Amino acid sequence: MPSSAPGAAILLAAGSSSRLGQPKQLVRHEGQSLLRRTASMALASDASSVIVVLGNSASRLRPELAGLPVSIVENQDWPSGMAGSLRCGLAQLLLQAPETPAALLMVCDQPHLQATHLRQLWQQHQASNQVVAAQQADGQPGVPAIFPARCFPQLAALQGDQGARALLRQLPPSELHILPMPEAVADLDTPADLARLRSQALNEQS
């Protein structure tokens, strides 16, 4: 990985997955848990470092990251919502590398994403020096998304269950570069979503 990497990655993995009924971070896909798969994907992108924010079931999740060169931080107040986990990740990033020029924000429940998609985001960000986000199914920008450091205070000011998408929706078009990425659409929130994912995997293997 080049020393001129454009920024760090923050993987938000602190939620309880209440609608799914089990920690989605531990759902296995392509031979590994979604948590390890996504963290490995972040490492394989052009990120200079990777921070993983855990919360619910942290003791069960930590072993999934064994051997990976990532920084782990626990959000003790994870029930208050995604904004708190985002602040934890940003605080750890600024502690480790206060001059980091940008941060890639990620979540675990996009099983069709690949490292190549993340590298495309970094490339677009470097070319435009703007916020870069994946296009979602409803036409709204969402994560994975890269925010320049000037946006860190706005991200840290989010409250409750607001995530990065809330800020993306507030940005004027001049500050936002959209990269169409249908692979980022597939969330994993319900048992029906999980059944569909497993069915697709079986069909691909047959």
UniProtKB/TrEMBL annotation:
It comes from the Bacteria. Residues 9-171 form the MobA-like NTP transferase domain. GO terms for molecular function: nucleotidyltransferase activity. InterPro entries: MobA-like_NTP_Trfase, Nucleotide-diphossugar_trans. This is MobA-like NTP transferase domain-containing protein. It comes from Acidobacterium capsulatum (strain ATCC 51196 / DSM 11244 / BCRC 80197 / JCM 7670 / NBRC 15755 / NCIMB 13165 / 161).
